[in-house]
Amino acid sequence: MLDPGHNGGNASHTSIVTRPVDAGNGTTKPCNEVGTESSAGYAEHSFTWDVVVRLRPLLASHGIDVRLTRADDTGVGPCVDVRGRFGNALRADAVVSVHADGAPVGGSGFHVIEAARPLGPAAADHRLALAVRAALLAGSGLRYADYIAGGDGLDVRDDLAGLNLSTRPSVLVEAGNMRNRGDIALQDSAAGRQQIAVALSRGILAFLGL
Ligand code: ZN
């Protein structure tokens, strides 16, 4: 299951996307967020959609049944609770949510986030995180994020509904910082997004043993 973060219609539907929904761990969060953008106005939802559209056939060519949490880049939502639970009934073998960060301009690189208190087996989350991290470092053109504690390309959070509500092996990838000049040069080029998609596919395939 691939989850391209945010959606193109979110910004013009604030009453829908600000509605509080279950975020797991006894908390609520807005249904969805607009996401970040580059200083030149390249939107995170466009980036995540394009990366996932490039990633999908790379996995499907290995016989993987790939499902996406949204059908296009012009809709609204779905809410983070729907995204988080999307793979549960499908018994998804792996759940990868693709985002890009809007961190301070001086920070660069990618990081892979695991749930602090996952509903599913934490060991599988961690194996997926390590596989995706290794593939991104080897092939994405991005380094480990230098603005995240630890500096090892990994993070653990308890506030992300998409991770909190999944019972399947799940990670959320922040594939670079859209505010950083070096990262956005990669993210805002088709070749760069293809490179990121290929790296993600290698990480997912390695996790699945394919
Ligand atoms: Zn995001």
Summarize this structure as a short list of keywords or feature phrases.
single chain; 210 residues; alpha/beta; two-stranded antiparallel ribbon; 7 helices; 7 strands; 38% helix; 17% strand; globular; binds zinc ion
Summarize this entry quickly.
By secondary structure, the protein is an alpha/beta fold.
Topology record:
Blueprint: E1 2-4, H1 14-17, E2 20-24, E3 27-30, H2 44-60, H3 80-90, E4 95-101, E5 111-115, H4 122-139, E6 154-157, H5 161-164, E7 170-177, H6 181-187, H7 190-208
Parallel strand pairs: 1-4, 4-7, 5-6
Antiparallel strand pairs: 2-3, 5-7
Helix pairs in contact: 2-7, 4-7
The structure holds zinc ion.
Structural commentary:
This protein is of the alpha/beta class and 210 residues long. It is 38% helix and 17% strand. It contains 7 helices and 7 strands. It has helices at residues 14-17, 44-60, 80-90, 122-139, 161-164, 181-187, 190-208, and strands at 2-4, 20-24, 27-30, 95-101, 111-115, 154-157, 170-177. It has a 5-stranded mixed β-sheet with strand order 1-4-7-5-6. Strands 2-3 form a two-stranded antiparallel ribbon. A hairpin with a 2-residue loop joins strand 2 (20-24) and strand 3. The longest helix has 19 residues, at 190-208. The two termini are 16 Å apart.
